[in-house]
Design goal:
8 helices, Endonuclease I-creI, 187 residues, alpha+beta
């Protein structure tokens, strides 16, 4: 574009070829309009492991979720179970990175789903309390996700103190949950 090549047919075809090689490729409309486009070859990047914990914090800003799950339960006296999940998701083509996160934190699970997504999930409360919370306390988020993390910590404290087994604790968790993630923008 700096050389003005995008103003020519050949330049537009180069741009579309590059777009075809990125993320999910060309959307249907472009694929139909340019059926003979060959995606540009991409260089292979060799994964060398996670070297910097600050990188994880930055990556988590865009790709993670601090999630509070509340589900009905016949085995809990109030009729609900509360669980925390820390999730990072990527396209399955980046599963090596997702496995690298699991190796780095030495806990959690890697899950592949039917939508070609890979997910790194930590849901065991001891791993949340002993690994996730201390990590983000030491390498804090510098963004709006910091508020979700603070809420996540508060729910973890409620669970760890067993207050989630009381109506007051469950009500507080429901209140916190309603303001997290996308719910925060509507309050």
């Amino acid at each position: 574009m700096l050389r003005g090549e995008h103003l020519t047919t050949e330049g537009i075809l180069k741009i579309i070829s590059i777009k075809a090689s990125l993320n999910l490729g060309l959307p249907d409309g472009l694929s139909k309009a340019f059926p003979n486009i060959i995606p540009k070859d991409r260089s292979v990047v060799e994964y060398t492991g996670i070297q910097d914990p600050h990188w994880i914090t930055g990556f988590a800003y865009g790709e993670s979720c601090f999630f509070v799950e509340r589900s009905k339960s016949k085995t809990h006296s109030l009729g609900f179970q509360v669980r925390l999940k820390f999730i990072i998701s990527q396209n399955v083509k980046d599963v090596i990175l997702i496995n690298g996160l699991k190796d780095y934190f030495d806990c959690g699970d890697v899950i592949l789903d039917s939508r070609d997504m890979s997910h790194y999930v930590i849901r065991k409360i001891s791993n949340i309390s002993d690994v996730v919370l201390p990590f983000f306390a030491k390498y804090p988020l510098q963004s709006s996700k910091l508020a979700d993390f603070a809420n996540f910590c508060e729910v973890a404290n409620i669970i760890n103190s067993k207050a989630h087994l009381t109506q007051e604790g469950l009500d507080r968790i429901n209140q916190i949950k309603s303001g997290m993630n996308r719910g925060r923008n509507s309050n």
